[in-house]
Task: structure prediction
Amino acid sequence: MAKMTGARMVVEAMREEGVEVVFGYPGGAIMNVYDEIYKHRYFQHILTRHEQAAVHAADGYARATGKVGVAFVTSGPGFTNAVTGLATAYMDSIPLVVVSGQVPLSMIGTDAFQEIDAVGISRPCTKHNFLVKSADELPQILAEAFYIARTGRPGPVHVDIPKDVTAQLGEFSYPKDVKIETYKPTIKGNARQIKKAVEAIAEAKKPVFYLGGGIINSNSADLVRELVAATQIPAVETLMARGTLRYDDPMLLGMVGMHGTYAANMAMSEADLLIALGPRFDDRVTGKLSEFAKYAKIIHVDIDPSSIGKLVHVDYPIVGDLKAILQELVPKAKEKVNPQRYESWREILQRYQELHPLTYEDSDKVIKPEWVIQRVGEKLKGKARISTDVGQHQMWAAQYYPFTRPREFITSGGLGTMGFGFPAAMGVKRGVPDEISINISGDGSILMNIQELMTAVEYRFPVINIILNNNYLGMVRQWQTFFYDKRYAETDLSMQPDFVKLAESFGGVGYRAKTKEEFDEALDDAISKGVVALIDVVVDRYENVLPMVPAGGSLYNMLLEYKD
Amino acid sequence: MIEQRRVISVIVLNEHGVLSRITGLFAARGYNIESLTVAPIPGSKYSRLTIVTSGSPRVIEQIIKQLHKLIPVYKVIEHSEIVEKEMVLAKIPLEESLADVEALCRAYNGNIVNIGQESVIIMAADEPLRIEHFIKAIERFNPKEIVRGGVVAVER
Ligand SMILES: Cc1ncc(C[n+]2csc(CCOP(=O)(O)OP(=O)(O)O)c2C)c(N)n1
Result:
């Protein structure tokens, strides 16, 4: 067996894992590793301009491809900058391995230069973390890190490596099979429970599929489509599940929750059975818990037992990998379930859809943000990946973009991280280079990682940033409008950089669109040129995201319109 | 919902930071720890934690599931039929009536364990509730210091 340094082991482990790209940012404590990257070009290293962006980019890559994303950062401030990225991935169950440098073992605990208790900080926002104590442990720890990240409920794993460990010599033999005695996620669902669930579906009168992000993470959208088509049971999607069903699937009632459609929220409220496939009953979906799905029995399928019954009582819990469970459940459901049974239920919901469809008032004088999303959809549906930042633009994207497949929509759901969209879109572009990568952002969010224009230009990631510029922290402004008597405390963003010049100064292309025509031209131009672009779209300042369930309200009490 | 007291044993791999993972989980999710004892399990690579906690049935269920989720956790045992013991040490001034002190200790499965220049150290090991009684009872001997050990438990 070969002896090699800990640093070399890190790059060898990446090779063993088939890692094709690492996003990162060097510094003192991780320099030995970077020196090995220089010597062995096993994978592409992408130098972002901020560690947060490195982790978001790895995250976007993971969300788009389903592979494990990887980021390297240095100790101290390098690591603390990465924390938001870890927390973002943790909340949405995204598989990542983040390697950080640490001060030498002998200096740990001395408040050394650039020392921080990295594993202490990352503990609550990672699936697991490791402090490596000797080079000999490295192969096993890195193999476990990848294994833990991608199995069970996926999540980010952090490996903290002291500088002297990266210099130490050790044996490198990379474990082919990882077995962790204390970690055995349940894969197969309980057959009896599955059978009972199918019976419950067959007997229900008003069932609804409640589709969650677990479907995307477990790659089971095809099976879900099959199940929905076979049973003809209406379905709602969470933010994280967008794209599970095609936008034009007749069974799809749209997004559910705070900014869900009327029909989707009413379906949840009136259902007698919820068939929850991989959602986590987030408060942005359930609204007031005591009123949530009051008349429904609940089937909940999830790989994470702690997700089941955490917030609501579940009548049919099924723990396991969603894909494995659906493989069993779908054929049984096809046999047992009579789609005709739900005819009148479908009719009721169809009436709800007709009564209050998702809609907005278009205008000739000013660009409506919803129009922009629809326009992007008309031009690019099925051909682009859509990332977003956080705010109104994110909700409009989720509501109005015609999603055709899973992993098409890349957004920070659980943590709601402004600054996520652009770096994530770079990771998406790296993961699926043949597709167009669009980041829908706001004038507030885009400034949170704007420095990445440099990375995008350097590595030719022709991400098209579409800024729905309302000169406000729009989503907060909307809450101030509805719930704070229009006291717009610190949400006015009239003071702005010239986004066009800003893009140009980094070597990208900037556009400003004040009319629909200008927007069309800008988007067409950016697509045909294949450049790093920023389209500053001047939109209606006071447009609100509707419908809206006020926080803590019940799903069936939606604000459907707002009149001044 | 009614709060219930629960004793939970957690068998974990002996590794760096595992205790802070457990206590961090309780802190982050607002669960209550009444007492916590830890020691290696002889002849193994595991340690056993005994946690006394309380909460509604749903909270207890979540505590157990969340503990299970931690990677180094091998087993979570939610005790029902158990023998529970807790230990307490106390320092009593020499002026007190040592015969009375000793008699009291005996009643609680204990003894005088050390006699010094100014004080004696006594111990008792008994069920947690009885330990409470013991602590009340020794008040009248003006203890200078009382150190409780936390609960250990084993299934019957
Ligand atoms: C890092 C971070 N800070 C603060 C918030 C709170 N927040 C949520 S939405 C929002 C406004 C976003 O404004 P903008 O990016 O302009 O988007 P818009 O809502 O106008 O579309 C803020 C401040 C957040 N989600 N993330």
Remarks:
- Chain A touches chain B through 19 residues (CB under 8 Å).
